[in-house]
Amino acid sequence: MKCSCCGKKKRLFESFEELDTAVSVCVECSKKLYKYQDYMKEKNENEAKKILVEVKGTKNSPEFEVWLDAFLLRFKKKEDVGQTGNSSTESSEKTTTVEE
Ligand SMILES: [Zn+2]
To answer: What pTM was computed for the model?
Structure first.
């Protein structure tokens, strides 16, 4: 097994974190992703960006890239997301009108 993020091979006693069925990352990459999350929560976007550059600068697998896109979307404000053309299978509960 290889890390979907950096391409590093899994060692015998190393535990990879499974992010998705086709996406597993090594401890280091998983730490980076958690850090990114923390920085985004703290609104420390500069540090978050640095981590993202690091993460993207490695041998990302295509599956990881897809996962990362979805991951990053979680941090975007709703109005920034907009319509991305070919996302078809995402029409579950988007029309929530709040009225009081
Ligand atoms: Zn890795």
So the answer is: 0.74
